[in-house]
Amino acid sequence: MSTAITAAVARAKGEPFTIQKARLRGPQDDEVLVRVVATGLCHTDLIVRDQFYPVPLPAVLGHEGAGVVEEVGPNVKNLKPGDHVVLTYGACGYCQPCVGGHGAYCSHFFGLNFGGGDLEGRTAIEDEEGRPLHDHFFAQSSFASHALARENNAIKVPQDAPLELLGPLGCGIQTGAGAVINSLKVTPGSRFASFGAGAVGLSAVMAARVAGASTIIAVDIVPSRLELAKELGATHTVNSREVDMVEAIRDITGGGVDFALESTGHPQVLAGAIEALGTLGAIGVVGAPPLGTKGEFDINGLLLNGRTIRGIVEGDSVPQRFIPQLVELYQQGRFPFDKLVKFYPVEQINEAAEDSTRGVTLKPILRFTHA
Ligand code: NAD
Ligand code: ZN
């Protein structure tokens, strides 16, 4: 059985999304059909629309979905209709990284999340004329009223949590928070800097406070974001358009930070961020420039100071464990990520994208209304 759906479709490179009717096939194997309540819009959706990453178009993007399970495939064990779920990235569950608990580095990550179909290239969505639309984006394609996910990327969340808010936990927010808590393992009393105070960078700021860092520095070029960073736990802010950020950070910390996260995606910011590390400092890289982009750093600066640079996907999150933890921290008032969010009806997806690009909205969430 297929379901009539409404989807926001990325039709061609750099062009606005179009809202259209389509059909989605029913769940098979370990798939679940989810009625999408709301989906976050992430920078990654826009760089795919603009073809930094070669996902075939036209496609239904969207990868921060939250919704209610409507139907489950025959091999689903732990989810049932009515469950509230947050949709996260796809991982095969069988490869070496997956069995080691590192699904974010799944050997099939690109195919499962950016392939535009399943690993065999099959799609599940057809437009009204019966032509396939590329889908399976992050194993969900949740810019649609209904989405198919697999049991292992549909994460059950408590019924008393505000479902329409939770989708961004599936990507941008778990990326920033997980980078701090799971990957860098920021320690109590340490000095942390977030290069970029967007949705990812500010999630890192909130997580650094949860982790007990004593100095938390937010770096950005947008004053309103730096203001919000202070509200969320930054002890210092640096506007890198106005001052030399490396000098400013060395002044604040008396030498450099212990931990840093780069989420701007700009190689020159990364280069500066590495310089702003203190002795034995470690930096996580999550900002995503176009494929093939190279970065530079001073090799002796790295080795003589014992610094570490590492790439991080999805905050090394094991979503089944980490997403419910973030929900709990939110419910306790210790991780107020609702302050990043602005809601839009899905029909205003292009306004939401524009607001995000211009820096007016940090984390747009698109709402779907169901009859
Ligand atoms: P965003 O656009 O909200 O945040 C980027 C921030 O960087 C903005 O606040 C912007 O003002 C700031 N910035 C830009 N140029 C700067 C400069 N020269 N100096 C200082 N600040 C500058 O985006 P986001 O949603 O926070 O995502 C951040 C990045 O992380 C994106 O590249 C996104 O694709 C990537 N991402 C990666 C993963 C992963 O798993 N690695 C997951 C989600 C997102
Ligand atoms: Zn895998």
UniProtKB/TrEMBL annotation:
Enzyme class name: oxidoreductase
EC number: 1.1.1.90
Single GO molecular function: aryl-alcohol dehydrogenase (NAD+) activity
Domain of life: Bacteria
Pfam family, one: ADH_zinc_N
PROSITE patterns per UniProt: ADH_ZINC
Record-linked SUPFAM superfamilies: GroES-like, NAD(P)-binding Rossmann-fold domains
Key words of the record: Metal-binding, NAD, Oxidoreductase, Zinc
Record flagged with keyword Magnesium: no
GO CC list: cytosol
Cofactor section: Zn(2+)
Domain Enoyl reductase (ER): 14-366
GO biological process: formaldehyde catabolic process
Family that this chain belongs to: Belongs to the zinc-containing alcohol dehydrogenase family.
Name the record gives this protein: Aryl-alcohol dehydrogenase
Species for this entry: Paraburkholderia bannensis
